[in-house]
Design brief:
Layout lengths: L1 E2 L9 H9 L4 E2 L3 H14 L1 H4 L9
Parallel strand pairs: 1-2
Length: 58
């Protein structure tokens, strides 16, 4: 699992999630930018990804 966004910057968050879920957790190299970059990717490739979104019309 990769942590992105401001919440991932909270001290001890990665360790807590890893401990509770037993899933390895890594921090994105650019956590604050990763959210925006991902959203931009979804917008640019909406037709290919629209089946992933709730309520998406086909």
């Amino acid at each position: 699992m990769f942590l992105v966004g401001g919440g991932g910057l909270l001290k001890g968050m990665a360790q807590r999630i890893e401990r509770e879920t037993q899933v390895p957790v890594k921090m994105s190299n650019v956590p604050l930018e990763a959210v925006v970059l991902g959203a931009g990717h979804c917008i640019e490739h909406y037709d290919a990804l629209k089946s992933m979104f709730m309520g998406a019309r086909r």
